[in-house]
Design a protein that fits this description.
nine-stranded mixed beta sheet; globular; six-stranded parallel beta sheet; binds nicotinamide-adenine-dinucleotide; 383 residues; Rossmann fold; single chain; alpha/beta; Dihydrodipicolinate Reductase, domain 2
Length: 383
């Protein structure tokens, strides 16, 4: 079993998810490589944060507040960077220039300029495996959908509708956080926060938007600042992108809708995709994560949707029984298995079990930048 020694920069919500996944690596009996977290960094490192990590992972030997100290640690071979978006450019380029593998969080740069500079650093360091975090396609039902794309089951694509929608901001008394402030989250607003997720599978399928007409909305202008006052909430709350998208297999264009919303009543954490085609159609929604609806059609036959329950048929074999349900932390574990596999083997296990590539992240930046322009001008903008 090979070991890759990791550092985590940003020990908040997502830093803890990786730590927890690394701690249950034995869950993946066939893996020939494992992560060992040796160093952690957070500007707000305190005794409680440090002990959460060190009690879970005795391998952690260094806990620092300055990321440069972590990067100077020669033991660290790879880094997971989960910090606010305004820090992506500086931190990601520093990780890559230090010659370490990087799993970066989305949106992979606060804006296109930041993303371009990360891309330039990657070009100078081909020895580094650099990927962008996005876990939902590792759900077994999604892997089944992805294998239908690979097997060309859909025929001519009629329409693709993908989205990631949240409801918590419907509560106007919810205090503000950095994700609702443009200085930290960026001008993309909700697109930067949620957009990579619905783009992941369409982009990996090769469905690259040619142009976009975007409608963005800012609904709640101020939120409680948590200190008794109110603060400006200056990011886009909701975004709907209508994209004309060529199918490289047929050359024909189809409509693709990418929706990201923070104010979607009743939708706690809903990631969904619908693909409609002449030969087959599918619907998937994380509300019912173990379920997939498939309609395969033969001309003249019935148009009947099948409702299929999936079990634990994961891309990377798990000790969980085959009939048991799959959840968010399982998707995170699978994504990390995919990243470690790519570090060890120099390629993904299969096309759709690869993590989001820097090229796919860069395409999302071109799309979101064009979407901002479309909102400003009211016109359809080339991507
Ligand atoms: N893949 C997913 O499903 C998913 C989900 C949520 C967030 N994210 C992404 O993860 C990243 C982090 O989001 P989060 O929800 O974990 O945020 P968070 O606020 O919970 O954690 C961010 C951490 O970064 C630390 N930090 C801030 N400035 C720092 C600095 N200068 N040096 C070191 N540490 C610093 C903060 O103290 C905090 O602990 C973002 O890019 C976000 O878009 C991804």
């Amino acid at each position: 079993m090979d070991t890759v020694k990791f550092g985590i920069i940003g020990c908040g919500l997502m830093g803890r998810e990786f730590a927890s996944a690394a701690a249950r690596w034995k869950h993946l009996p066939d893996m020939d490589v494992r992560p060992e977290i040796v160093s952690i960094c957070d500007v707000n490192m305190n005794a409680q944060m440090k002990s959460w990590y060190t009690e879970l992972l005795p391998s952690v030997k260094q806990a620092v507040t300055d990321y440069k100290e972590l990067l100077a640690n020669k033991e660290v071979q790879a880094v997971y960077c989960a910090v606010p978006h305004n820090l992506h450019e500086e931190f990601y380029t520093a990780v890559i220039n230090a010659g370490k593998h990087l799993m970066g969080e989305k949106p992979f740069g606060v804006d296109k300029k930041a993303n371009d500079s990360i891309t330039a650093a990657i070009k100078n360091h081909p020895e580094c495996v650099v990927r962008c975090s996005s876990e939902f396609p590792f759900a077994p039902a999604m892997q089944r959908l992805c294998s239908m794309i690979e097997q060309d089951k859909f025929g001519t694509i009629l329409e693709v509708d993908a989205g990631f929608v949240h409801s918590s901001d419907l509560d106007t008394s919810k205090p503000i956080n950095w994700k609702r402030i443009a200085k930290f989250n960026g001008e993309y607003g909700v697109m930067g926060d949620l957009g990579m997720h619905p783009c992941h599978v369409p982009f990996k399928a090769g469905w690259k938007p040619k142009n976009v007409r975007a409608i963005l909305s800012k609904v709640v202008p101020k939120r409680p600042d948590g200190k008794g006052g109110m603060a400006d909430c200056d990011t886009w709350d909701n975004a709907t992108l209508f994209c004309e998208t060529p199918d490289p297999k047929t050359g024909m264009c189809f409509p693709m809708t990418i929706k990201t919303q923070r104010i979607a009543p009743g939708e706690k954490n809903t990631w969904y995709i619908t693909i409609l085609g002449m030969k087959a159609s599918v619907r998937f929604n994380t509300k019912n994560i173990n379920h997939i609806e498939i309609m395969e059609y033969v001309p003249g036959g019935d148009q009947a949707w099948q409702h299929i329950d999936m079990g634990h048929e994961t891309a990377f074999k798990s000790v969980t029984g085959g009939i048991f349900e799959f959840g968010f932390s399982d998707a995170i574990l699978q994504m990390w298995a995919a990243f470690l596999y790519e570090i060890k083997h120099g390629r993904p296990e299969k096309h759709f079990t690869g993590c989001v590539t820097p090229e796919e992240a860069a395409l999302s930046h071109r799309l979101f930048t064009a979407a901002l322009e479309s909102q400003k001008t009211g016109k359809t903008v080339t991507v």
